[in-house]
Amino acid sequence: MEEKEFDPQKVFSYTPEEAFQFIVEGKTSKSDLYATGFPARKRPELEQLLAEWEKLPIEDDEIWEWAKYEGTIQAFRRYLRKYDKNTGYRGKHVVEAKMKIEELEELRQELFDDMKESPWKYRADTVKYLLDGVNDENTIASLKKMNDIASKFISSGQTVEFKELQSNGIVPKHWTYEKIIAPDAAVVQTEMRDLGKFPTEGRTDIFFLGIPAGGKSSVLAGLFYEMHRLGRSIYEPQFNEDRIDRCSSYYEGLIKSVDAAKFPVSTAKDTISFIKINLQTSRRVHPLTFVELSGAAFMTIAKAHAVKKDVWAALGAVQCLQSKNKKLLAFIVDYSIEKGSIRVDAMNNMDQSLILLGSLNVLCSDGDGPKGDVHCTFSRIDTVAVIVTKCDLMDKRLSEEERTQEAMNYLSVHYKAFMNTLTSYCKRYGVNAPNKNQPYVLTFSLGNIQIGNTYDYDPRDSAKLIDFISVTTEGRRR
Questions:
Q1: Are residues 227 and 201 in the same domain?
Q2: Contact assessment for residue 273 and residue 279, using Cβ atoms and an 8 Å cutoff
Q3: CA-closest candidate to residue 240, choices 295, 192, 185, 181
Q4: Are residues 390 and 255 located together in one domain of the fold?
Q5: In this structure, are 338 and 252 located in the same domain?
Q6: How far is CA 116 from the centre of its chain?
Q7: CA separation (Å) from 158 to 70, 131, 275, 340, 451?
Q8: Taking CA 415 as the corner, what is the angle to CA 414 and CA 417, rounded to the nearest 5 degrees?
Q9: Are 87 and 100 contained in the same domain?
Q10: How do strand 326-334 and strand 383-389 relate by DSSP bridges?
Q11: Of 159, 181, 203, which residue is a domain's last?
Q12: Is residue 163 part of a domain?
């Protein structure tokens, strides 16, 4: 459209709107327009247009302040829709608004990239904030003090839509909003002293030892779920003196946690509990007692440098450790520590290594004799394995054999003292004879972790561990 030039000879024919446009475009001034004879009858309407024009910068600033307060892409776009014009009034903050949108879009993309790369950072409560936003001012103030991407995004007032998570490949297409914001699976672990007499009728006891939140409950959950799914488990109730089975709720809770694709909540206090399962193969039945020490109990054991035998009594574990049952001992090593600041307790490889070594020394010196090595717990062990958990964090391109080798390399680099000491005790007490007295090394994962502390269940590691147990424990003919 051809731009119209101001012509003083045509001043009588211009409408108030045309005269107004000439003034705002700087092609004339109101005084010159009036001096050239702009009709008096048209001037009131022109004056009104000019008065409204003078208000625009004030409104511009007010709307800009609102947009900044909202701090969202939508707010800045609303400002631009009103003020980003090629003709008429152009907002004073158009350039800054475009820069703000660009910054927020970059933060949004950075968030999506981080969610795909490090989904374990985004627990259910964080995801809920991202999807629904936060209205509480105290929460927002706290988030603004944080430096992580999620906190920056949430405190900026932005939200994401669930369909964006799906379209960006952050959550599977078939998952729901309710699934990813659901809380962790709460499972109650009953203390040993409340379970009644420890079973000693020719069973194999399988002990799981590891730091808090290291993955012990997840290993048990995967085992129980997969055995149940395959129809290979027979659960045996453990009645106490009141004829109450205190193990069933924990057992069922672990299975349900896998069905919901939620990690079981770790037991926080010093507890030791057990569950009796008869594992079936095509020809044999393996009577097993799974014994889990909570992470807190494991830490107590690891730090019991002077107490030795007394620590077992305090935890109520003497009866299971001194039983004549065959025993399989599994040390749990948390691979997620290799990924940096995943753990909230900031534990590193050195911490975990020293704790594992400390607990091993207790197990090998809680017996009789001057050194406590006669009839110690380790002398009653038949099989020892090291299970490296959370291995879905390894390179996804690794084969099963390569993943096992990665786990062995990880142990040889960060846990060399523990592994060497463990091997030494295996040789001393004749443990793992079929494996030349070397500790078995296994990898484990429930599946690829997703945001919301959820995961895509992968049965392979659970099935592999079931097969390992069936090979290394005694069974009777069906």
A1: yes
A2: no
A3: 192
A4: yes
A5: yes
A6: 12
A7: 9, 9, 47, 28, 18
A8: 125
A9: no
A10: parallel
A11: 181
A12: yes
Amino acid identity at 350: M
User: Per-residue confidence of the chain (478 residues) as pLDDT tens digits?
Assistant: 456 888 888 888 889 888 888 877 778 888 888 888 888 999 889 888 888 877 778 888 888 999 888 888 889 999 999 888 766 678 889 999 999 999 999 999 999 999 998 898 898 999 999 999 998 889 888 988 888 899 999 988 889 999 999 999 999 888 999 999 998 887 877 776 677 777 777 899 998 888 887 888 899 999 999 999 999 999 998 887 778 887 888 899 999 999 999 998 755 465 677 899 999 998 999 999 998 877 666 677 666 654 455 666 666 566 677 678 899 999 999 998 876 655 555 678 888 898 888 888 888 887 788 887 888 889 989 999 999 999 998 998 999 999 999 999 999 999 999 999 999 999 999 999 999 999 999 999 999 999 998 999 999 999 999 999 999 999 988 8
The token duo for 358 is 């400390």
Asked if residue 325 lies in contact with residue 240, where contact means CB atoms within 8 angstroms, the answer is: no
* Tokens of residue 186, six digits: 């709460």
**What letter represents residue 218's amino acid?**
S
Q: Looking at 122, 152, 181, which one is the last position of a domain? A: 181
Token reading at 316: 């109520």
Structural domain boundaries, residue 335: 192-477
| Whole-number Å distance between alpha carbons of 67 and 61 | 10
Dist CA 343 CA 445 (whole Å): 17
Contact 272, 191 (CB under 8 A): yes
Rounded distance, CA 475 to CA 169, Å?
Answer: 45
Distance CA 464, CA 11 (A): 92
Note whether 47 and 174 are same-domain residues. no
450, 180 Cβ separation under 8 angstroms: yes
Residue 164's identity, in one-letter code, is: E
Residue 44 corresponds to which tokens in the numbers above? 């009131």
- Count of domains in the chain? 3
Strand partners, 447: 457
Domain check: are 311 and 385 in the same one?
Answer: yes
